[in-house]
Hints:
Elements: E1 2-8, E2 13-20, E3 23-30, H1 35-39, H2 46-60, E4 69-71, H3 75-78, H4 82-89
Parallel strand pairs: 3-4
Antiparallel strand pairs: 1-2, 2-3
Amino acid sequence: MTGIAVTPMEPGWFGVQVKEGYDTTSHRVQVPEDFALDLGVPDAEPERLVEQSFAFLLEKEPATAIRKEFALDEIGRYFDDYYDELRSRL
């Protein structure tokens, strides 16, 4: 079973721990200031954006393959369906 824990850090930044079986990975993620607005979901909570982004990523690759530090708007460079999928999850 996979668990995702999102912890607010400084403004716009979140710590994420992913537990997959016996493995735990840690990540530092930025939610750009107008990310939710640009996505078309202005009321989405930043923590939820991070959580659902990780749920999306974990469907594509194991937690050990996810970068240790990145901004959410970088995910779309690697996965064309990210923005549409994130909108549908929210």
